[in-house]
Amino acid sequence: MLTQLSISNFAIVDQLDLDIESGMTVITGETGAGKSIMLDALGLATGDRADPECVRTGADRAEIHACFDLTLCPDAIKWLENKELLSDNECILRRVITKEGRSRAYINGTLSPLSDLRGIGELLVDIHGQHESQSLLKKNSHRLLLDDYANTRKLATDVAFIAHQHNRLQTELDELLSSQQEQHERIQLLTYQLEEFEQLSLQEGELSGLEKELQQLTHAEATLSACHQINHICSDSDAGNLLQQLTHCMHLLGDLSVDHPAINSTMEMLSSAHIQVEEAVGELNHFIDHFDADPQRMQEVDERLSAIYDLARKHRVQPDELLGKQLSLASELEKIQFSDEHADSLQSKLDELKHKYQAKAEKLSERRQKAARKLEKQVIARMSLLGMPRGLFNISLTPHDTKTLSPLGQEDIEFLVTTNPGQPPRPLAKVASGGELSRISLAIQVITAQTSRIPSMVFDEVDVGIGGGTAEIVGSMLRELGEKSQVLCVTHQPQVASQGHQHLFVSKKHSKSSSSTRITNLNGDHRINEIARMLGGVEITHSTLAHAEEMLGLTA
Known about the structure:
By secondary structure, the chain is an alpha/beta fold. Helices cover 55% and strands 18% of the residues. The protein is elongated and about 160 Å long. 30% of the residues are buried. Residues 336-381 form a coiled coil.
């Protein structure tokens, strides 16, 4: 509930700090004193649009702080937790408006978008004013009110969750089925492409081997010629080949009768060279004996490489990337072929979810229908007490005509009313005047207060156009509502004002250069005098004061 409200440089308020109590708080004062300023400020603190004209003349900015106790407001706690803005069990909303028209909003000290301020505000305060967009004009609030009254909020949440799951899977299945023709064509293409790969039957490392082999075959004649020339020089020449020359050199040194390290070292190196030349000749002969210079083989390798290069160009990849491309195509084909099985699985899940939805939604509809008829009777009875004796209130539950499962249940819910005999019930926004709408709202709020999730309700002049006994009933209803929720009410009626648990008096103070609004918490004689003033008359007489004391005594 609202515990504190601080207003600075707003309209004709220079500085105002209020502690708000639980129960019913009435706000009274002379016409034009600024009784609605407090409610306007609270509206800005909870997300209403700002007008730079609201900044007090001569000030740079207006500032509003509203502090709420969240002990009995689990929805607001959850909202703040999701936004990572929770601070104990308290919520402080701050709004700053500059004279240039700029606006900033803060939630528990954190700069926040206005939409967030409005979001948390809707969970904390329900403001009902003749010239405000009231919650009863929003069809969504009708469903929430009825579900709270019927104690079906959890069941409605389950229905919404199942519907969202079903509709998400249905979209996935629809997209899957709509692409079946494209998938069929893709399967044909992938199958053909993979057949080409299978026909090629490319092996790991084959490409580099073929390229190397082709290079050898291309230069086969020159290779063999060079090899034969080397053999001739090293061992085959009769005119003194390399081996013969090395042997001759070794014999010359061996015939020397000189024992010298240089001669001995030379002899060893010549011997080693002779051995290495012999081994080189052997290796070269082995190569020549096994070298395949078959022109037909070269043609086969060339054709094989051409096939590999052609397939690589076709798929716009490098030749050494072909095996990876083959794996990619095979994986895609497998996934597409699996889509039929996936579609069957999705349909099975959809059937299961639809069955669950129908069971829970039908149960929800039954409980809504039963609660709607009961709530209608109670609201009509309250409307009669509130000066609309022949008014009718009807809760329309119209079945949805849609193929998709609605998260809201099987029916569209709307509150209909008529305050004139002979006229059929119509939507609230089209038939109810400001005062009537406030009183109808009051009737509904009193009835549903036991299950209401909004801790603070504000009523701005719900007593317009009524008086006497009806005003007294309005006051008693507001007090009854204040026993279960916090109620703030701007009123001109003493019958209503006398019912409050707390009484705030609004007055205007004038000086030579400015005017300012003050709010005083009335008790004792001050409250008696204010009730007497509201009762009327040029002068407050002993009779008027006695009447005021009597009215206040009724609330003792």
